Amino acid sequence: MSTSSPTPTERDQGSAHPARWWHRLDDGRLQCDLCPRDCRLGDGQRGACFVRMRAGETMVLTTYGRSSGFCVDPIEKKPLNHFFPGTPVLSFGTAGCNLACKFCQNWDISKSRDMDRLMASASPARIAEAAAANDCGSVAYTYNDPVIFAEYAIDTALACRARGIKNVAVTAGYIHPEARRDFFAVMDAANVDLKAFTEAFYWKLTGAHLQPVLDTLAWLRRDSDVWVEITTLLIPGANDSEAEIAALARWVLAEMGAETPLHFTAFHPDFKLTDRAGTPTATLTRARAIAREAGLCHVYTGNVHDTEGGTTHCCACGALLIRRDWYRILDYRLDEHGNCPDCGTRLAGRFAAHRGNFGPRRIPLHSL
After folding, report:
1. Confidence band (pLDDT; 50, 70, 90) for 366?
2. 10 Å Cβ neighbour count for 71?
3. Angle ∠(200,290,260) on CA atoms, nearest 5
């Protein structure tokens, strides 16, 4: 069975919240149906994500209403280059993760089992209010994967939509079809981490599988209105071969379309993968060239200063449309409809009449 989601309320912060997407097994255990891990739990046991738990005869989410912190970021940091460029986004996450990435760049949050690290004033309504008060046109569910706090993210997204605020998921896309449908129904944009393009990498370095992520990406393109961009963190000697990059790019072209933005970002040694150096900028530049040669139009480099690798060009005439240096927009030539001023071709993405000018700032919010 699948439990129904209660109406959002101003409940006590940090209290256990009824979970959705689970069923009872014949042996009495409860199986979580949120993601392909299919955790089977006895009373008091937690799933691999640590935040979904069996409590008696039901499943609960233990991080509902609690956050590891709030920050106003540039939307380009998510990274999203074709979703209201230059605008601020209120970003937050919780704790835990349903992947076990040895190279996690946010491991202190995603691997945390210390619930006391979470802040205590973060109801869905309050988050929506804070976004509006800080002139944020969108809220990003990020830092750790929002899939594991889907009930909280969905309620918050609904509160944001009631105020005209858009919702952004930064996710690894490791989620079952029913939960995927419910979760992305309230999202306006997503950046999906396609961590590599081999099953061996996924299993050895993330403890997960590649195909469910590909399924999520293809579903988003085929069956949703969510604006999608893809990020691949290139790790020297692990997923940065020319053959793998070319295969990944060909898949994106065939399944997602030539105008789907693809970001190649730089790895730095962290968590359990400290036996190799960070990614050279030359590797990102080479990956960008390979993906463009495969037929992708919008390929970007990230986590480095690379103006050419951050610049958006018109797919039709090649004109420079948006020039960037990391999170800073240096030039913006789109008209009020998001069209190329030289040939009139519309740039794929979501754009407003006037672009934002938030820049590369990062503004922590110490309280809501």
Report:
1. confident
2. 18
3. 85
